[in-house]
Every structure is written in structure tokens, then in C-alpha cells.
Amino acid sequence: MSRNYKFHNPDGVYFVSFAIIEWLDVFTRNEYKKIILDSLHYCQKEKGMEIFAWCIMSSHVHLVFRSSGEQKPDASGRLQAIYK
Hints:
By secondary structure, the chain is α+β, with helices and mostly antiparallel strands. Helix content is 31%, strand content 26%.
């Protein structure tokens, strides 16, 4: 599977999953889950990301989202920046 997300329709709704290297159970600690939630909240507030659903599992994250508002930036760049 490709390591780069491809978003061909800037108005589309997308499902993405982020897995931790070697499926380590990183998100068992609330502090680490909070980092993900804070990052998603920032993207909603500052970058125009509309989040329909999310699920934080112990070793991975699921997200259903789209770009909203007037700003239609490259969503893949926005997602990569969250996790760098």
C-alpha cells in the first residue's frame, strides 16, 4: 500500500488510517491521545478540516474528513504535517 495519501477531489470525503510503526500500542496513554485530538482540533479551527468521524485505537487512528470552507488546500500535506 502507498505511503502517500492521494486526494484527487478537493471537495470529497475521505477515510484514512494511520498505523504506528510495528503496530506498537502507543495510544494506550491519554497524553498521547490528547496530542492527536489537539492536532485534529487545530486543523478544524485553523485549516478548515471538517471531521465526520474518528477513532483512536491503541496502535492506529481512523479518520473520516474533508476540507471545508473557501480554503481547499492539499489535504495530504496537512495530514503529513500533523504527524511529523
